[in-house]
Specification:
Layout lengths: L2 H25 L1 E9 L2 E9 L2 H22 L7 H8 L5 E2 L2 H16 L9 H4 L12 H7 L8 E4 L4 E4 L12 H15 L5 E5 L2 E5 L7 E6 L7 E7 L2 E7 L4 E3 L6 E3 L2 E2 L4 E2 L3 E8 L2 H14 L1 H9 L5 E6 L4 E3 L8
Antiparallel strand pairs: 1-2, 2-6, 3-5, 4-5, 6-7, 7-10, 8-9, 10-15, 11-12, 13-14, 15-16, 16-17
Length: 333
């Protein structure tokens, strides 16, 4: 072959290799997906080198979020949780292993917090409507307080059944299901080969790995600052859950009180001392119920709870704006 022809072929091959490498570099990028699920905005960010495969990954995560919402929403009449709420006060109800595990975990935190966390808050909570600014009357609330009692939720591990020994008792998994869903999403991402990602569902987030050599910078919302951030934390391979009185609320026209969705199980009314609690730990299945627990317990008891559990920290913002931290965080700037 003439020298000129050989050089031409070599250049063509080299150009082809360069174009392939450039295409690969262009494909490798951050991928984003957002959908309205579980009554909130679910957001996914992850690094992937292939556009087609990335779409499959994003679809798998969002499908899992939809599945959990469909199964465990108290607002969907055909959900497994709704069926349980309708039938469990009449006789033990056979439930899926997954629902049994979530309820069992919730009851663990009820025992640990002596009832500060209680998924049977829905017995009263179902009578609040935050969009319409409605709440139960004092008489109705007092009459239903007896039904907020995690001890009346009876589990049979052999039969995987759930029974309510109080006829008015109802469950709502809002304080634990989103954290669980975020964990499930991270498991899917790992199985599909993703090493760097963040998943959030409302106030519950979990980060996988770091942000390719840098930590993920996760902001904690200023509860009285519209869209401003009160604090930013550098995180990697961890979960963070925030419970705040600004998520679902209305202002009572007669008293001027903020009526929000985090109820004190002892009173059936909005817990009133704090504006925001963020708990950091290994997985959302724990940080989600713990953030609610600390919110109800208040600063001193809340921090004492977190410091009694290895591997967790918390940041508390009081209604007057004062910040408190567990000792593992010191005083972040």
């Amino acid at each position: 072959m003439p020298l000129n022809g050989l050089l031409t072929r070599c250049c063509q091959r080299l150009l082809g290799v360069c174009l392939f490498l450039m295409a690969s570099q262009i494909q490798a990028e951050w991928r984003y997906e957002q959908q309205a699920i579980m009554g909130t905005e679910v957001s996914l960010t992850f690094w992937h080198e292939d556009s087609s495969a990335a779409k499959t990954v994003a679809t798998a995560v969002m499908n899992e979020m939809h599945r959990i919402d469909q199964a465990f929403s108290p607002y969907k009449p055909d959900s497994e949780l709704s069926r349980l709420n309708r039938e469990a006060s009449r006789a033990p109800v056979k439930v899926s292993d997954e629902l049994y595990r979530i309820i069992d975990k919730a009851l663990y935190y009820s025992r640990l917090t002596q009832g500060a966390f209680d998924i049977s808050f829905a017995s009263v909570g179902q009578h609040y409507n935050y969009r319409e600014g409605k709440q139960p009357s004092d008489e109705n609330r007092q009459a239903l307080l007896v039904a907020i009692d995690y001890r009346q939720v009876k589990l049979d591990p052999r039969a995987t059944t759930v029974y309510f020994s109080q006829p008015e008792l109802q469950l709502d998994l809002g304080g634990i299901a989103k954290g669980y869903a975020v964990d499930r999403s991270i498991e899917i991402l790992k199985r599909m080969g993703v090493n760097n990602a963040t998943v959030s569902a409302g106030g519950d987030s979990r980060v996988l790995g770091d942000k390719r050599g840098r930590p993920w910078m996760v902001g904690i919302k200023n509860p009285r600052g519209q869209e401003s951030i009160a604090l930013t934390l550098p995180l990697a391979d961890t979960a963070i859950s925030t419970s705040g009185d600004y998520e679902r609320y209305f202002i009572d026209e007669l008293t001027g009180r903020r009526i929000h969705h985090i109820l004190n199980p002892q009173t059936g009314q909005s817990a009133g001392e704090l504006a925001s609690v963020s708990v950091i730990g290994p997985q959302g299945f724990d940080t989600d119920p713990l953030s609610t627990s600390v919110f109800v317990l208040g600063v001193e008891k809340g921090i004492a709870l977190i410091e009694s559990i290895q591997g967790f920290d918390c940041i508390i913002i009081a209604r007057d704006g004062k910040l408190s931290f567990s000792s593992g965080l010191g005083q972040p700037e």
